[in-house]
Here is the input.
Amino acid sequence: MRAAVLHEIGQEKLEVLDDVEAVGFGPGKVKLRIRATGLCHSDVSAMNGVLPQPAPFIPGHEGAGEVLDVGDGVTGLSEGDRVLVCWLPACGACPSCKRGQTQLCLAGFVNAGTPNFKRPGGDVFGFAGTGTFTEEVVVGAGCAVPIPDDVPFEIAALIGCGVTTGLGAAINTAQVEAGSSVAVIGCGGVGISTIQGARVQGAAQIVAVDPVASRREAALRFGATEAVSPDELADAKQRITAGEGFDYVFEVVGKSATARTAYENTRRGGTLCVVGAGAMDDNFQVNMFELFFDEKRILPSMYGGGDVLRSYERAIALWRAGRIDLESMITHRVRLDGINDALDQMRTGESLRTCIEL
Here is the structure.
């Protein structure tokens, strides 16, 4: 079967091969036919080594498709079912799951260390234990979440990661209050979803911050009340909050420099929500006096900060009701052979979300 493979960490281009086989099918597993997958910035972060991932590997974790086969012991799934891929399934038994913090379950990360593909030359890993830049993939049954018939595969794929992450940051983690002021730093697919989440919550002012003009323009269409470049943020803070700072600032880049900017633009007693996934050696610093004196809440948000199954259902309900726009987030569509062009478009900021159709 065909798949896009990264041979070594640090390479910028993927090689589309037709000699890849999905392996590992058995009890507790399902085999999926991927129909659509989104290109998420986390895929690029894994390729360049920011996020740890063994290689060679097949990127992709934001996918949807159909069940081809069901292993022994699997219940609730049947051949032909339409599903989205959950890259961080909850085991239901660990301390995090028992506390209701299923987004912190580590069971899914264990899968990332087990190859689920192979080529004539040896084993191939799937990113985050999945690997959706491929025609077929074998995953644990918990990674396959049934979706209603009225949800297109490309919409379901977005809900599988970026939409859930951004909406959840605003709704679950920060719990944005109606009438509040919000700034979102970084307006790719996750940032746009964060903006939509803040709008759903009733924020009065939503300032989108991004260096790319096309992304700023897009942010306005998705609910931002104003869109500025990073250099213009200080002026927006002065005009909108009289210099006090925003009630909520979301960092959706994954870098300590932008996290520091977000902290400085959060009002005293306000909330900084860190959504971007960054590198282990990139340290965010605050001094002990400002930490105490400013009483700003620093809230990391992992995969939307809540139960992902409930978050999927909420996203579908909001989409059906016209409260969030997911179709327009897909700015580009390619076949698998066009994956490297899609990567370039993401790196330059030209795309919000690219849908890879398989």
